[in-house]
Inverse folding.
């Protein structure tokens, strides 16, 4: 399959995973299994296949920024890098949904964090960690006693 078609397929599959994760904030647990496990596994298999097929013949490496730029200059390895982002960002989003459900973080507050994770990866993770910390800190505050 040509790289452009794999790109399109992987991107659409990731979007299905993200929609399932958002729905999993309120919906049945099978949505979490689909978006938080099945889709990242399929994307990871695609990534592994691309790396196995094209890494040995690729120029560049990981020793410098120029080496990484050269490594990703070929369409196949660039596609592998893109699928890597899709899989890992979705995996992080799944962790956020699990943590939110476990810790009682309201779903409506988690959705913007998921959107940030989808678009900007680590920025969305930071937003979620800050949100969860703020909610946890608020719940940990003892109620002020009212004296007559």
């Amino acid at each position: 399959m040509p790289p452009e078609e794999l790109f399109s397929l992987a991107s659409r599959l990731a979007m299905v995973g993200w929609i399932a994760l958002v729905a999993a904030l309120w919906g049945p647990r099978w949505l979490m299994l689909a978006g938080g496990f099945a889709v990242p596994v399929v994307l990871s298999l695609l990534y592994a296949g691309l790396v196995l097929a094209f890494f040995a013949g690729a120029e560049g490496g990981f020793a410098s920024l120029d080496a990484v730029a050269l490594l990703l200059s070929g369409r196949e390895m660039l596609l592998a890098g893109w699928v890597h982002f899709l899989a890992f960002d979705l995996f992080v989003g799944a962790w956020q949904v699990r943590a939110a459900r476990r810790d009682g973080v309201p779903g409506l507050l988690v959705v913007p964090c998921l959107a940030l994770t989808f678009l900007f990866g680590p920025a969305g993770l930071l937003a979620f960690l800050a949100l969860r910390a703020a909610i946890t800190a608020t719940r940990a505050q003892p109620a002020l006693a009212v004296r007559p």
